[in-house]
Amino acid sequence: MANELSILAPNEGSTRVRTRVGRGEGSGLGKTSGRGQKGAKSRSGYKNRAGFEGGQMPLHRRLPKRGFHNPFSLDFAVIGLDRLADLAAGSVVTEETLRAAGIVKAGADGVKILGGSSLAIALHVRVAKLSGSAAAAILAAGGTTEGPLPE
After folding, report:
1. How far is the C-alpha of 124 from the C-alpha of 143, rounded, in Å?
2. What is the residue range of 110's domain?
3. pTM, whole model, 2 decimals?
C-alpha cells in the first residue's frame, strides 16, 4: 500500500508556499511589497549599473589613472644559452622542444634566447628571437639559426 504513486508527497518541511508579492496587507508583504519606502529601488524598472554607488563618485573614477597598457604587447619566455647545454647535440631547438624538455613553461607568446655564455654542442635553433651574442655563440659551436635576425 505504501508504494502507490497516488500517495507520494515531498518530505515534511522541504517545500514552502511561494510569497505572493503585492497582494494586500494580509499577505505579510502589504503596502510597499517589501521594497521599503521611497527611492530608486522602490520604483518599477529599477536597474543597478555595475560600480554604481548611489550617486557618490564611484571608486573607479576617484582613483588616479597612470601609465599605459599596450594590448598588443607580446610576453616572451627569456632563457639563457647555458640552458641549451642539456639538449642532445645536433637536435633542432624550437619552442615545442623546449616545452617538452621543461625549459619553457606554457603561456608565453614565444621564446627569446640570450647569450652570456658559450655553447659546446652544435644545435639547430629555430625560435622567435635571438640576441646577437647568442647567435654568435651558436654559430661558433657549429650550429645554425633560423628565423628573424638577431637583436
Report:
1. 5
2. 76-146
3. 0.55
